[in-house]
Amino acid sequence: MIEAALTVTGLGRRWSACCLLWWLVLTPALAEDDLFLQVVDPYLEFHSGPGRGYPVVFVVERGEWVYVLKRKTAWFKVRSEQGREGWVPEQQLERTLTGEGELIEFPEPALTDFQKRRFEAGLFSGGFQGATLIGVGAAYHFIPELALEFSFARALGNFSSIGVVSAGMVADPFTDWRAAPFFVLGMSGVKTEPRTTLVQERDREDPAAHVGLGLRAYFWQRFLLRAEYRNYMVFSSNDDNEDVNEWRVGLAFFY
After folding, report:
1. pTM beyond 0.70
2. Are 48 and 55 in contact (CB under 8 A)?
3. Which of 3, 67, 99, 239 has the fewest CB atoms found within 10 Å of its own CB?
């Protein structure tokens, strides 16, 4: 039994004290639409990747034009008139001119970007029927109000280790709210690996269905916080279905 394997700890349920704060370094952004810029410095250096550690692979001279393809944090991928592509830091690209002869300004990602997001990815921690839970997840928004979400989590108890793979739909009806509830419905696979030494038990793999209710909140640049409660109905191979509760709190980024 999953419940028996996880809850016989002598101290009852063991909940995580707080969520893990995971700072994600690279957070891709949406491409700029039809943005052509003229170089006014003596030259503009193209790096092979979005960082100072990548070598300079091409140089565009003063007076030439570049086309902005996409953004990744403080770096922009651009294309020259000759068709060469590379990455330029934001502070250098801000010294170029638009077609109207004005210096370009790049706004920081804001709430409007959050409302138009397509992808999310992040990490979370919490509790799975009294065991410590940690996992990763990702979601794709077909429309702002509906997303397909995948997650993988590992729950570590005193007597067993459990892996949970989930896929489901996320309904977010209040897309204009900075903080709002969301609803989850999906299917899962639960693999239980006993850690006992006195009695040898075989690993179990059981299907499950889950429903959930959560709260997401946009708070800074391309980051959002998520808190969620889920209830699983595990269709046990022992012909004894089990009702399992889970909570998770995490940090995610979007683009």
Report:
1. no
2. yes
3. 239
